[in-house]
Amino acid sequence: MKTKRSWLKYFVGAAVAGLLVVPGQSFLAQDSSAPTTQTQQNEQKPHTFMGKIENSNGELVLAGGYASRDPKDKATYKLDDQEKAKPFEGKNVRVRGTLNASTNTIHVTSIRSGS
């Protein structure tokens, strides 16, 4: 019996200390702020969005906007920098920035004329 208890104590102690290796399992703390999905990783990369700057309920938005890689997916995006957008109201533009998909908001890096 004493041998079984010794081994049991060893395994319990090792598990608590995080020393046991279990295939497919990680017992180490992970950085939860790091992107974990492909969508989250894509949101971190700047993209070029094309569309028209329009006023929607007192807020400037990119209407009929789409990412340069997929012109079929048109949407209206909120713009986080209204000051950069003001000179382009009513114009077709290219907005460079990162998209926060959960709020449908583009964090604007730059805006320039063109479609």
Short synopsis of the structure:
The protein has helices spanning 2-17, 38-44, 82-85, and strands at 47-56, 59-67, 75-79, 92-100, 105-113.
Number of strand segments: 5
How large, in whole angstroms, is the Cα Rg?
A: 25 Å
Number of helices: 3
Estimated helix fraction: 10-25%
Q: What series of H and E elements makes up the topology?
A: HHEEEHEE
> What about the largest sheet?
5 strands, mixed, barrel
What does this structure look like?
This protein is an alpha+beta fold. It has a domain of 76 residues: OB fold (Dihydrolipoamide Acetyltransferase, E2P) (Beta Barrel). It is 23% helix and 37% strand. β2 and β3 form a beta hairpin. The protein is elongated. It starts with a helix and ends with a strand. The model has no long low-confidence stretch (mean pLDDT 77).
Which keywords apply here?
elongated; 3 helices; five-stranded mixed beta barrel; alpha+beta; 115 residues; OB fold (Dihydrolipoamide Acetyltransferase, E2P); 23% helix
Break the fold down into its secondary structure elements and pairings.
Blueprint: H1 2-17, H2 38-44, E1 47-56, E2 59-67, E3 75-79, H3 82-85, E4 92-100, E5 105-113
Parallel strand pairs: 3-5
Antiparallel strand pairs: 1-2, 1-4, 2-3, 4-5
